[in-house]
Amino acid sequence: MKVFITRKFPGEPEKILKAEGFDASVYQSEEPVPRNEFLNKCKNADAIITSLTDKVDKEALDTFTKCKVVANYAVGYNNIDVDYARKKKIIITNTPDVLTDATADVAASLILGCARRLREGEAIMRAADSINWKPSFLLGLELKNKTLGIIGAGRIGQATAKRMHGFGCKIIYFNRSKKENFEKEIGAKKVSLNTLLKNSDIVSVHLPLNEKTFHLLDEEKLKLLKPDSIIVNTSRGEVIEEMALIKLLKKKKIFGAGFDVYEGEPKINPELQKLDNVFLLPHIGSATIETRFAMSALCVQNVTNVLKGKKPVTPV
Ligand code: GLV
Ligand code: GLV
User: Fold this and answer.
1) What spacing in Å lies between the alpha carbon of 222 and ligand 1's midpoint?
2) What is the number of the ligand closest to the CA of 76?
3) Could you confirm whether 206 is annotated as catalytic?
4) Could you tell me the pLDDT band of residue 248, with boundaries at 50, 70 and 90?
5) 106 CA to centre of ligand 1 in angstroms
6) How far apart are CA 293 and CA 85, in angstroms?
7) Ligand 1: residue whose CA is nearest its atom 4
8) 1 burial via Cβ count (<10 Å: 0-12, 13-18, 19+)
9) Which of 50, 51, 52 is the pocket-test mutation for ligand 1 (most atoms within 8 Å of CB)?
């Protein structure tokens, strides 16, 4: 059975699949596979391992005539038309759990980076020939006793909250369901979205992107943020109306913002790059050696299970 892998991934999943007796091939690049080649290669594949830049839309799914499983090398699956895949009886899997801690580390890094103005400090040191210590130089915000609002208290949101609880933050969260264990463990309190935005010193966004969450944080909602607050996003750029946030940052209506994801990726809004009060990372939430290998292993496991007639480990 044929497996097509749309990029070179850490851990070389094609080798593991070949060892298991599958006819696995890989697009030999770390760059995205061109659309035509993607559709052509997928036509005869029994299984496909995709990355978040591959659009698995209706057109693509209609060409996947033999495909039984698409294993997405990401926890997010907004690149896939999951409803249409279900109609076509194609199983979709993702990579939850294995990237939770890595991504929460990046969310915490963005919070620290914004609060302590690490990016500005680092840039100054690269241009300086000595340290110019001054009492009011690069004053940031203390994290102890601050309120952290978690938007989306899933695995990554909770893991981020636990890290920041260790820094002395109080936790409030906005989520569909109440998270009893989370509340017990660190005293987190469930609130409405408006209450969260009005009361948080730090907001961290952890929602999947779908029709309900697209621009959930629009201009009107962002205006509720406190003037000394920080907002960071490690989920998907489109959950925030980015231009509205840029406006707030330009007018210094909030203290800072940290981004690992952007609206309209892979493009970046050049307005963001001009701002001092932002901390910008290139979508590296899951980019640790440990996690990226584990993501490959999980994709392989999902593909192998489905092709051998067993249940996938992490179906969407
Ligand atoms: C990365 O953005 C992922 O969804 O895994
Ligand atoms: C700072 O370095 C201090 O000693 O207070």
Assistant:
1) 24
2) 1
3) no
4) very high
5) 12
6) 27
7) 76
8) middle
9) 52
**Greatest extent of the chain over all pairs of C-alpha atoms, in Å:** 67
The SS3 call for residue 69 is strand
Look up 155 and say whether it is catalytic.
no
Measured CA to CA, the distance from residue 132 to residue 143 in angstroms comes to: 25
pLDDT, tens only, 61-92: 999 999 999 999 999 999 999 999 999 999 99
Percent of the chain at pLDDT exceeding 90:
100
Domains of the chain: residue spans and CATH: 2-98+289-307 (3.40.50.720), 100-280 (3.40.50.720)
Q: Is the dihedral of CA 274, 278, 279, 280 positive or negative?
A: negative
**What is the structure's pLDDT at 5?**
98
Mutate to test the pocket of ligand 1, among 78, 97, 103, 156 (most ligand atoms within 8 A of CB): 103
Mean pLDDT, residues 116-144 taken together: 96
With 0.90 as the threshold, say if the pTM is over it: yes
Please confirm, yes or no, whether 7 is among the known catalytic residues: no
Q: What pLDDT score was predicted for residue 86?
A: 98
Per the prediction, the chain carries an average pLDDT of: 98
CB neighbour list of residue 309: distance below 8 Å, 6 or more residues apart: none
Does residue 152's CB lie within 6 angstroms of at least one atom of ligand 1?
no
**Residue bearing the CA closest to ligand 1, atom 1:** 74
